[in-house]
Amino acid sequence: MTDEHDFSGLKATYLNCTLKKSPELSHTEGLVDASAAIMFKQGVTVEVIRPVDHDIATGVYPDMREHGWATDAWPDIYPQILDSDILVVAGPIWLGDNSSITKKVIERLYALSGMLNDKGQYLFYGRVAGCLITGNEDGIKHCAQNVLYSLQHIGYTIPPNADAGWIGEAGPGPSYLDPGSGGPENDFTNRNTTFMTWNLMHLAKMLKDAGGVPGYGNQRSEWNAGTRFGWENPEYRS
Fold first, then answer.
1. Which 8-state DSSP code applies to residue 232?
2. Could you tell me the pTM of the whole model?
3. Fewer Cβ atoms within 10 Å of its own Cβ: the N or the C terminal residue of the chain?
4. Is 197 helix (H, G, I), strand (E, B) or coil?
């Protein structure tokens, strides 16, 4: 491994938003494993989490136990996400849309967006994100645009070609890992998964080496204190 491609200082978390609890076979995890294997070979520390295995409450606060829920596993999960340079949200398509678990995870990530980093920026600044989608018929681009928009909105940086996926033919048929599906051998899926994975590593390393996103013009703490970073109210222009 050359220094140019040494990503050994990076950490990545994959959230497999399957509806299936472990140890049930998850076709989404098949694609997650393909991407994670590339990162692992490059020295990235990789963690894969199935949110459905955990009692994550529904809501948009960091700890829903403070808002009427008896239990909430999210406070035990999100520190792992915050400790990672790379986040990949992976999930299946159901009825042409993201799974309910994918949506719940994004809502809980959004719950953290009110927090700030040491520069006064939104908490997820300086981190990169991508997504993996599996399913049948259609919906990869629709699901990916929803996930990637949401992740950039809360502060993640999205690299080029940050999504990949596999879908089967229209109608009932084999899923990604089923015999004869052709999923693991699909060159289009394999290419896009590889490009996404490498672009995540490249951009994560660039941001980490640079100390994150520069802290000027994007600090909510400074805006709240009255700094306007060159913004000029049109009503006062001459």
1. -
2. 0.93
3. C
4. helix
3-state helix, strand, coil in the chain (%, to 5): 40, 15, 45
For 76, the token pair is: 């035990």
In terms of DSSP H, where are the helices of 68-186? 74-82, 100-110, 140-153
pLDDT band at 236 (very low <50, low <70, confident <90, very high): low
The answer to whether 137 touches 168, Cβ cutoff 8 Å, is: yes
Q: Where are the beta strands (DSSP E) in the chain?
A: 11-16, 45-49, 86-94, 97-98, 128-136, 163-168
- 3-state class of 93 per DSSP? strand
CATH number of the domain to which 111 belongs: 3.40.50.360
Q: What is the pLDDT of residue 174?
A: 87
Q: For residues 136 and 96, give the distance between their C-alpha atoms in angstroms, rounded to a whole number.
A: 9
Q: Which of 119, 83, 116, 88 is nearest to 10 (CA)?
A: 83
**3-class DSSP assignment, residue 45:** strand
Domain extent at residue 163: 3-236
> Distance between CA 17 and CA 31 in Å, rounded?
12
pLDDT in tens, 179-221: 999 999 999 999 999 999 999 999 999 999 999 999 999 999 9
Q: What angle do CA 133, 139, 140 make, to 5 degrees?
A: 35
Domain count, the chain: 1
